[in-house]
Amino acid sequence: MKVLMNCNNSAFQAPGGGEILLLKTREFLIKKGINIRLFDQWNDKLQDYDILHNFGLSSNCYDLIKAAYNKKVPVAITPIYSWPSLRFALRAGITLKQKLNLSTYSLLHGTPLLNRTTNAYKMLRMASIILTDSKAEKEVVMKTYKLKSNTFRIAPYGVDKRFYKANKREFIKRYNMEDFLLYTGRIEPRKNVLTLIKVANKFNLPLVIIGGGDYQGGNEYYNLCKKVAKKNVFFIDKMEHESSLLGSAYATAKAVVLPSWLENPGLTALEGGLAGANVLVTSRGSTKEYFKDHAFYINPFDNKDIEKKLLMVYKKEKDSKLREHIKKNFVWEVVTKAIEKDYKELI
């Protein structure tokens, strides 16, 4: 079996969870004996492959998906759906221009009938299977784009088993810090990091933020976060995902916090939970299907709820329930079994 993987052609200029999802899916499917190549437009021919697997719904993926469809090469799409929302658009944008752009995108992509003009709609219609991370993502994509249920398969996101064995020593030795709130990832409006900083400031809670200012939309939001942060907030430049220091940071933290406007489901929350940290995560997206009753959930539109839950997760003693749940259900060795099965169904 030969599989070609593709994504937004600028994705790896500022890699985040979606890019980790692609690379880890590839890594563990290769371990299962599947021949997988990342698409090289200069050398690869679609007819040489059994499946094209596309990650995301970026418009610049359209031509390749259309070419595969026309050549009768089965197309699998992992949508990494953005759940467009006018309410989010009006809250998340920093400038008027950003608010207008986000609002336009939300209305165009989130409204049935209107979204029939989009490349996302056309790509989903050409897919042989659509691999959603959860039932929640399946339902919203199916309803929004008026798609048939039999096109969908559930393929949960995964996490590296190595985080289960992470320990505190390396991070404490480097930074002399322990039992803090931890955010790690891209510092962008969707992650609602600015609100997190303001709440941590209000209650003087120790907050560590791991992430740089190289978000594709620019560093304006990052600079604003740095400006608002007080002495209780400690910034660390982004760490390589494979770094042992990242796992140590998770193990040292009291809680991993993701008050985002959306998470599907938040790979850093899975990683932190597997390392033994408490987890506070947004209720919007697919989070509840992953973390069940082992996490704290917040309404990202309600600052009072964020304040309440942030204090609760910080005070809660850590236990092993969440990490055992994640180890059993969401390590890559487990979740890629579903994708392997779906690939075999296509050929």
Description:
With 347 residues, the protein is of the alpha/beta class. It is 44% helix and 14% strand. It contains 15 helices and twelve strands. The protein has helices at 17-31, 62-70, 86-92, 96-110, 119-126, 135-145, 169-175, 193-203, 220-228, 244-252, 267-274, 287-291, 303-315, 321-329, 332-346, and strands spanning 2-7, 35-38, 51-55, 75-78, 129-132, 152-154, 181-184, 207-210, 233-236, 255-258, 278-282, 296-298. The strands form two sheets. A six-stranded parallel beta sheet has the order 2-1-3-4-5-6, with helices on both faces. Helix 7 packs across helix 10 (244-252). The longest helix has 15 residues, at 17-31. The model has no long low-confidence stretch (mean pLDDT 92).
Overall, the morphology is globular
Give the count of helical stretches: 15
Based on helices, strands and strand pairing, what is the structural class?
A: alpha/beta
Largest sheet descriptor: 6 strands, parallel
Query: Strand order of the main beta sheet, please?
Result: 2-1-3-4-5-6
What value does the average pLDDT take?
A: 92
Task: Give the termini distance in whole angstroms.
Answer: 8 Å
Helix content: 40-55%
- Number of DSSP-assigned strands: 12
| SSE ordering | EHEEHEHHHEHEHEHEHEHEHEHEHHH
Uncertain spans: none
Rg measurement, Å? 20 Å
Report strand %.
5-15%
